[in-house]
Structures are given as C-alpha cells and as structure tokens.
Amino acid sequence: MCGIAGFVDLNSSSDQHVLKKMTDAMLHRGPDDSGYYFQNAASFQIGLGHRRLSILDLSPQGHQPMAFGQYQIIFNGEVYNFKEIRTDLEREGFSFSSNSDTEVILKAYSHWGKAMVHRLNGMFAIAIYDSIREEITLFRDRAGVKPVYWYFRDGLFMFASELKSFHEHPRFKKEISEEGLGLFFQYGYIPQPYTIFRHTHKLKAGHMLEFAISNAEIKTSTYWDVISCYNQEKLSISEEEAKAETERLLKSACEYRMVADVPVGVFLSGGYDSSAVTALLQSSRSEKIKTFSIGFLEENFNEAHHAKKVADYLGTDHTEYYCRPEDAVDVLPDLAFYFDEPFADNSMIPTMLVSKLAREKVTVSLSADGGDELFGGYEKYLIAGKYHDKFSQFPYRKQMSGVLEKLSPRRLHLNAVFPKSSERFYRALSFLKCESPADFMGSFQKFFTSEEVKELVHSGSGQVFTGFDDLEYLSGGLSDLDKMMAIDFKTYQQDDILTKVDRSTMSVSLEGREPLLDYRLIEFVSRLDPSLKIKDGNRKYLLKDITHKYVPKDLLDRPKMGFSIPLERWLVEGFRDHLEFYFQPDRLKEHSLFDVFEMVKIKELFLNGHSYLLGKVWTVLVFQMWYDKWMR
Asked: What Pfam families does its record include (predicted)?
C-alpha cells in the first residue's frame, strides 16, 4: 500500500522540488521509502512520485518508480494473483529481478498493453508513462478500493492518491465546485467522478484514463462495471451448488489477501461479514489469526463483547479497545487532514481508532466491507420496498410534488411554530418524487434533500449525474433488490465505505484489504437468484448459512447494529466546544456558502433536544472543519 502522485506540465513551469512536495504530502501512506522520476522533455515536463509502504518484497528491488524499456510505473495497492501472472510471463520469455507485484504489472503492460488490467485481481491505482508514445495511462481497480484523483487546467495535468498532493503545486487553483458542494450536503460524501474542487475529478472505479501529451487529449473508458454483472442472465443452479461455489470463492479471496511479507490481521466486529472472513481463515491455520475490535461504553453502540465471544470460539489472538469520548475528541482535529475533502460518515472515528490499535501489531488488516451490498444485508432494502408500495398508491404524485416545490416552510415562517415542519415537508417532497425502491433508498441516505440544499447552501442548481443515475442501465427484468444492491455498490460503498477505510487505515500506515470485494465473488453472487440473499425476510441468507458451518448461530443471530458512534451525546458534551466554535455566525459567513441564519437555527434546535437534526449539524460541522484546514 502506497501513495502515488504525478504531473505533466505543458508549460514547463514545474520542477523536481514540487514533485517531491506533492509526493511527500502523503508520507503516512508510505513511510518506508520514496522515489521520484522527473524529466524535462522538449515541450513538457513530467514527474512521477511514490511513497512506499513495504508489504511484498521488502528489499530495495521493490523501489518505485520502476522502469522497463520505454515504461515507468508507480503503483498503489496489491495484485494478489501476481505469481500466476508472473508464471505466464516467464513462459513468454520474461525474467524478473524482484519478488514484487509492481514488476509483474509493468512487464504485463509491456506484453499485453492496456488489456493486462483484465488479468489483475487486486486493489490498485496504477500510473504508467510510455516515453515513446508520450502517454500516461491510469488504472483504478474494479471495486474502487484504491483512490485516484486527477486535475487538468491551463496545461497542467496532475494525479494523486489524495487531494492534498495537489495543494503542493503552486498552480493548483482551490476553487470549490458547486456540484461537489451540493452533493456533499446531500449524501455526506461526494460521489465519483465529482470532488470538492473545480477541474478536479475522481477516476471512477473500473475505469482507465489515457492522457496523450502531444495534443493534451484525455480519454476515460470503462473496463469493468458491476452493472454488467447484474445484467447477465441468472445462474440456473441449486441452492446447495450456489452455497458451495460461494464458499469456495470466499475462501480463495481470503487466502489471496493473506499473502504478505509482513504480519496480517483481521478487523472483527462480531457480525456475520467479519466473522465469516475470520472463521474461513482460522479454520485452515494452526497459528492464531490476530483480530481487532473497538467497543463503546454506551451499550446501544457496543459490539465488542460480541466480537470477543466470536474470537474466543474461533481461538484467535484478539485485541480490543473501548473508545472513550476523549479518544474521539483527540481524533477530531485530524479528520480534515486525512479526509482531505468533506466527508461526514461519523464511523470514520472508530475506524481510525481500530486501525491505530491494529497497527501496533500488524501492517496489513483484512476488513469485511461489501457483504451487505453483495448479499442483501441492509434493512433499508426492505424498508425502501415498503415505502415504494405505500407512496405509489398516492394519486397525482407528480402534480402534488410540483405544487409543493413552490412552497417553503421557511418562507411561510412555519418553523417558528412547528420546528419539525421543514424536515417533514422536504422529506415528504423527496418521497413523492421517488419512482422506484432504489430511489427511496437514495433518498433515505440524504442529510439534506436537494430542495433543502437549494435553499440553505449556495451550490449549483444544474443537473449532475452519479452512480444513482445508473439505475436506467440495469435490465428491466431484474428484481428491485438486485437494482438496489447494484446502485449501492456504485455509490455508498465506493464513495463512502471504501473512502472511510482507505483514509483511516492509511492514516497510521496500515494496509486494508477487502476479501468480500474480490471481483470473482461479485461476478458470481450478482448472478444468483435474489431469494438466496433475502429469504423470507432473512437478510444475507446465503452468507449466514455458510458462516453457521464455522460459528454457532446463537453467537451471531442478533439485530444488526452497524459501525456507529454515540454521536449525539458526544456533540452535546465532548464536541460541544467545536460545535459552538464552527457555528459562529462570522465563521459561517466567511465563505458565503450558507444561509447563516438557518444554519445557526438548526444548531440551536439540535442543542435544545431536536435530535432529528443530528445528521445536518454533523455535516455542517465537518464541512466547517474541512474549510478551516484547506481553504484558509
């Protein structure tokens, strides 16, 4: 796991010092080594930088940038099947001087070209410079585990693992994107390809980008998409056959992710996903797997005791830590640095804490993200269907929403008498516009509805297209459950969950690996009948049945809690000073992006017991902390 950064300057106004600053801004991603490639060409400058966290081949032979013939590569991530690819290349006459996957990728590219990406099983952000064709190609892994940002303006093309690298280039213009701002206040994250800055983009998962230096042409293309997986014909196999093949793929995915030249552990929450990963690994080993969990003193949020029971049953080497409010307060000032665009998933706090706990004993930790999106684990899938059935019975829904759009509880001053009027009004308006269960699912996840954003946040009103809009590309014959899981994969999972895990683990130089996001598993499970995912209301039916072979049902069968924190109490108590500071009217006025009066009012209502405003208050606080760090 590493950090990459680079640029092509068509104005030749950069230098190696800038490249080093861009790269070293991500020291936390790769503290073990650094490398830089800089060249003054006839009509441009090119720079490639790399920070290394040594996982495979700890020797200097794994140093990057790495060269072979006309190619230079920098690479962040792991390719788990590199040994098989290396064997294929050796049959073609290639020889190798290292035991690293980087050298395998580089020589695979020289042999198969861009098509080599289809052979890779892993998580990766790859940049390859072809000095003869004068072209840079970027690749991002299928599931989007590893991030890639890119920027192009006024003859300067840049790319990096994190946005903070761009700040180190003197020609980067920090202009807030109205589209990115509006999306953040709706979802609490910014869906790809948007970012918080203008002219700055996320490379979409499963995509490649080609930058032709001679004419400054940028072309992005898709090489893999979960939509295509779901659109394939369903498999005509029995439940037992489905279970056997799923278990085989799960085992293979887990074993692949244990390949390392450093200690490896597992995040264990005590839920089905992490218990399945831990059980599959421990069942084939005599040595104890190292497992880690974080707990809370507040019982309603605590799963640590469940994780401890699972760890004791499986016989792992378990470490747990109970998070106190003061631990969270200590983390709060660091959030804006490591999550260098606004990000409001409050579970980033315990994820950072459990990553710090694991880093004391291991350099790699497996995480079990993706199980809910793949096997149907979220209750929202069932609730969305019920809401769709209920609201579809309303006659003249579109006409009603059209009338309501012209009204505003704030302009009618209803809030003074009925504080909850705005919240209920905008939520109902949002629901009236929903056409499918997937639309309801997206609506549930919004902190501010799009109508509220128009009123309260001075952001763009133009239409934007995100993974939520990919619903139209899904086959009409698919079940509502399949459609919701596919859209969830392309939105909440990629841009919220995976962002959270990458930034949290990398904040302490810990490599996080995701076995449930192995593309072979995704391609297979997406073709199974949805009744194997939610059966008679039993969510994650197939995965649960497999897990019960290794862990007794009574240790796991309980209501799903999710990985959340007692945020409401912490905001009122431990975070209170931060809340009051960042909601000062003068600070809210500073950037001219908010309706200051309404934002202050939301904060005051929350502190007076209106807990339904928790998400809104937290989202504004996160943005204010980000602005303070990166825009002053």
From this structure: Asn_synthase (PF00733), GATase_7 (PF13537)
**CB of 470 closer than 8 Å to CB of 367:** no
Instruction: Please check whether residue 233 is in contact with residue 527, taking contact to mean a CB–CB distance below 8 angstroms.
Output: yes
Neighbours of 321 (CB within 10 A): 16
Look up residue 52 and give its amino acid.
R
Return the structure tokens found at 464: 């934007």
Phi, psi of 397 (to 5 degrees): -60, -45
pLDDT digits (tens, 9 = 90+) for 400-411: 776 666 676 666
Burial of 431 by CB count in 10 Å (0-12 exposed, 13-18 middle, 19+ buried)? buried
DSSP letter (8 states) at residue 204: P
Question: Quick one: residue 179, left, alpha or beta (phi over 0 = left, psi -120 to 50 = alpha)?
Answer: alpha
Average pLDDT over the chain reads 93
Angstrom distance (rounded) from CA 486 to CA 80:
25
> Looking at residue 324, what is its pLDDT?
85
3-class secondary structure, 562 = coil
Separation CA 525–CA 538 (nearest Å): 17
Q: Which long-range contacts (CB under 8 A, 24 or more apart) does 80-84 make?
A: 80/121, 80/122, 80/256, 80/257, 80/259, 81/119, 81/120, 81/121, 81/122, 81/256, 82/122
Average pLDDT over residues 223-237: 97
Count of CB atoms within 10 A of residue 334's CB?
A: 13
**Among 357, 323, 352, residue whose Cα is nearest residue 335:** 352
DSSP 99: S
Active-site amino acid positions: 2
Can you give 137-160 as a three-state secondary structure string?
A: EEEECCCCCCCCEEEEECCEEEEE
C-alpha 355: how far from chain center: 16
Burial of 389 (0-12, 13-18, 19+ CB in 10 A): exposed
Tell me the average pLDDT across 473-493.
96
SS3 74: strand
CA distances from 213 to 73, 311, 431 (A): 17, 54, 47
The Cα-based distances of 483 to 109, 136, 253, 388, 525 in angstroms read 35, 35, 25, 14, 14
Sign of the C-alpha dihedral computed for residues 303, 569, 330 and 563 taken in this order: positive
Beta-carbon contacts of 521 under 8 Å, excluding residues fewer than 6 positions away, are 246, 249, 250, 253, 374
122-163 pLDDT, tens digit each: 999 999 999 999 999 999 999 999 999 999 999 999 999 999
